[in-house]
Amino acid sequence: MPRKNAIRKWEVKMPPNEWYRKEDPWNIKDNEYEKKKAEIIWTMLDYDDILLDVGCGEGHFTNKYSSKFSLTIACDISNRAIERARKSYQHIAFFPHDIREPIENFKGKIGTIVCSEVLYYFNPTEQKRVAKNIVSLLKPGGKLVVCVSRYFTEKDIKDLFPEIRWTKTYREYDKRLGDDYTLILGGYV
Known about the structure:
Blueprint: H1 9-13, H2 16-19, H3 32-44, E1 50-54, H4 60-65, E2 71-76, H5 79-88, E3 93-96, E4 110-116, H6 124-137, E5 138-149, H7 154-160, E6 165-173, E7 181-188
């Protein structure tokens, strides 16, 4: 199970559209740490068919990832973020969705899924449901890239996604935050 206090309670209590009252609330476009993390994820992507970015926010990194795929789709729980993403990146199919609920029309059809900085918004029961929903979308041989922060260990992720054969692990420390790190894992169904 994820470490104690794995959920950022102040964010979870706030309605998702409130996170996006202002554009780019986490300074994703200009933050060097976030850019490096996106670059690492991008290097783990090697499929050339369909990408689903779960928790895409305003789509800034989804746009970067899309260069490797013939079709990119992306979802986020925030309608406001999806509206901004659609205006900025019209070549990507964005849709609002709460990943705690299944996406029936994509089951078994997705070649690659990126799930970055999403899991800690959910309690442990919801995390299991989210993991199950994500895995159900992957086609045979499909790839999953998961990025989490210090709230999770590698074992936590492997326990949440037992169907995945993990092949790559990357841990990036953020010196500005002391002990904080980002863990990125990639693997196949």
